[in-house]
Design brief:
This protein has 160 residues and is α/β, with parallel strands linked by helices. It has 3 helices and 5 strands, in the order H-E-H-E-E-E-E-H.
Length: 160
């Protein structure tokens, strides 16, 4: 009889712990990647195209049942607004900083919609000739993708 009580307490505790680690995003909702555009001109790159592909791939990898091509319950939009190259004082490095405005539009619950500017940056050597190398821009896109994904799926301020 004591084993049954211990087993019951163990199972109850296990499910309580598991329930604490859930996503803030309603798993029944679908997400559509809407318009991704840019007001900046990064040489030899379409940062908007690369970000769209990156966020789609990231969602497909982590929450594939939520991503749809059209008519999503939620529409994600993005505009790349600004970039700056900043020399770091007394340091042989520079920093490139990119600002993107992300809009999260919840069609079924508009009060949960939000808009936020994300600023991501990457440091590189001052003497680097190609400031917009594939490697640097890819790192910026990866950082932005992860930040946006976490804001959508794990930000508990959304009051899901």
């Amino acid at each position: 009889m004591a084993y049954k009580k211990i087993f019951f307490v163990f199972i109850f505790t296990f499910f309580m712990i598991i329930s604490c680690y859930h996503s803030s995003f309603d798993e029944k909702k679908t997400i559509e990647i809407g318009e991704i555009s840019e007001q900046v001109n990064i040489p030899r790159r379409s940062i908007s195209f690369d970000f769209k592909k990156s966020i789609e791939d990231y969602i497909m990898k982590h929450n594939p049942s939520n991503l749809v091509l059209k008519n999503g319950d939620v529409v994600l939009q993005c505009v790349f607004l600004h970039y700056a190259i900043i020399p770091l004082e007394n340091d042989p490095l520079k920093k490139i900083k990119v600002t993107a405005k992300i809009s999260y539009i919840d069609k079924s619950e508009p009060e949960k919609s939000w808009e936020k500017s994300f600023v991501v940056s990457e440091v590189f050597p001052k003497n680097k000739k190609d400031l917009f190398s594939k490697e640097i821009i890819d790192k910026i896109i990866e950082k932005l993708t992860i930040q946006v994904y976490h804001k959508i799926f794990y930000d508990f301020d959304n009051n899901w």
